[in-house]
Each structure stands twice: as structure tokens, then as C-alpha cells.
Specification:
- The protein is an alpha+beta fold.
- The protein has one domain: 2-Layer Sandwich (Alpha-Beta Plaits).
- Helices cover about 30% and strands about 35% of the residues.
- It has a four-stranded antiparallel sheet.
- It starts with a strand and ends in a 5-residue tail after the last helix.
- The model has no long low-confidence stretch (mean pLDDT about 90).
Length: about 90
């Protein structure tokens, strides 16, 4: 399984419509409207890198509301349990 995070700069007046269109694409697991240098973050979960490339370049970037994107591919996932254990060291 390939997981990626796509950071998207969208046209201001099309952010809600762009987020909705992204959420309808196969392989897009979650879509968030965010504050900061980007407007939308899409979480993608697909089987192969080829599917990721097709989804991002063949489908997502054709949406008229997307001005620019940056794709981050996840190497390893850390569970919430592991994070809680790591940050609670010495908190007893």
C-alpha cells in the first residue's frame, strides 16, 4: 500500500468545490481544508506508485481549482499508540 499526502494550493473561490471533487476520486481517502501555505491536504492510499502517479497527474491536477501541488510519499507509519508512548516518557 502506498500512502501519500498531497498539499494543494487552490483558487480561493473554488476551495470547497475542489475539496469535494477530490473526495470523489478513487484512491483519495481523506481531504482536509487547512490553514497555512496550502489550502487543502488530500490523503491518498493506493496499491502502487503507478496508481499514485496516475491519480495525481492524470486526475487531480486536471481539476480546475488546483493551482499548484506538492506530493509527499509516506515511508513508514507510526501508530498513535507508539506516539503516545514516545511522548509520555518521564511523565509518570
Amino acid at each position: 500500500m502506498v500512502t501519500a499526502f498531497v498539499l494543494i494550493s487552490a483558487k480561493r473561490d473554488l476551495i470547497p468545490e475542489t475539496a469535494q471533487a477530490l473526495s470523489a476520486l478513487d484512491g483519495v481517502a481523506e481531504v482536509y481544508s487547512v490553514a497555512g501555505p496550502f489550502d487543502i491536504v488530500a490523503v491518498i492510499r493506493v496499491r502502487t506508485n503507478e496508481e499514485l502517479a496516475d491519480l495525481v497527474t492524470g486526475h487531480m491536477l486536471k481539476l480546475k481549482g488546483i493551482e499548484r501541488s506538492e506530493t509527499l510519499i509516506a515511508f513508514r507509519a507510526v501508530s498513535k499508540f507508539d506516539l503516545e508512548r514516545m511522548f509520555s516518557i518521564g511523565m509518570d
